[in-house]
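The protein record filed here:
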Amino acid sequence: MERVILSDMHPSRLRLFKGDDTRKPQFALKMTIGLLFSCMGVRIAAIVENFHRGMAIREAFPDQDQPRAITGMSAMGLLPQVFILGIAETLSSVGRSEFVHSQIPKSDIHSR
């Protein structure tokens, strides 16, 4: 079954399966690392938001008689998640671009 599927494919696409290309595809690695960074960034966002929520509850409701509307939170806690999510987006977008570029036939690239 595998021989039938692989033999019907175009030879330029076989290089992804056989590994005989001189330049091994790095796009999958970049997209995987980008996905891992994305998961890590969302996890950091959850931790920071949990901390901010606890701080808001403690500062806004010190006693039930007089709640305050303003709490003293800083937006600097958002920097780690924004930084990590930026790295994730960069890696995955570069990986996607390399994948799309690798799927274009060489004749289409050089004909323009």
Notes: The longest helix spans residues 27-60.
